[in-house]
Design brief:
The radius of gyration is 18 Å and the shape is globular. The chain is mainly alpha-helical and about 190 residues long. Helix content is about 75%, strand content about 0%. The two termini are about 30 Å apart. Helix 1 (about 1-20) runs antiparallel to helix 3 (about 35-60) and helix 4 (about 70-90) packs across helix 8 (about 160-180).
Amino acid sequence: MVWLVLGVLVWSVVHASRSGAPALRARLVARLGAAPYRGLFSLVILSSVALMVVGWRATTPRLVYAPPLWGHGAALALMFVALVLFAASGVPTNIKRAIRHPQLTGVALWSFAHLLANGDSRSLVLFSVLGIWALLEMVLINRREGERQRPQPLPLGAEIKPLLGGLVAYVILLLVHPYLFGVAALRF
């Protein structure tokens, strides 16, 4: 469990430092240069993901709470919405008019969905900490950037790309989930 906790903490602190400590980021970029800073940032983030994977696999799950009977079905629905939001963050869309941080909102929904479907100790650590990080990150970004300027409205067709992207990602994840994460997302 130590590696899992360390991985999610490194991920959370390093990401939050970009928004919560912009002066530190500026000093590091000035000292290292922009490209080396990005490389170092990426290396630390990839290392945190590796720690999470190693920690997840090394931790024996212990039941902390019994997920609700409807939790798995709700998780499946929330995951589709989370993936659409994640896809919407990369393209012009009206979703960004309604939601300031679609990608981080998608991460928060992803974590909540998994907490509805899983009640074990390692799920509680991974998904609750990353969900809290996503919410905190939104607050830090809002504080840094100030008042929100809503994007201009777009034609309804702008929603097609994130919906299709979310759908494709959803189907792929349903198919590969048992192989990547050891748990079938679809249970019959």
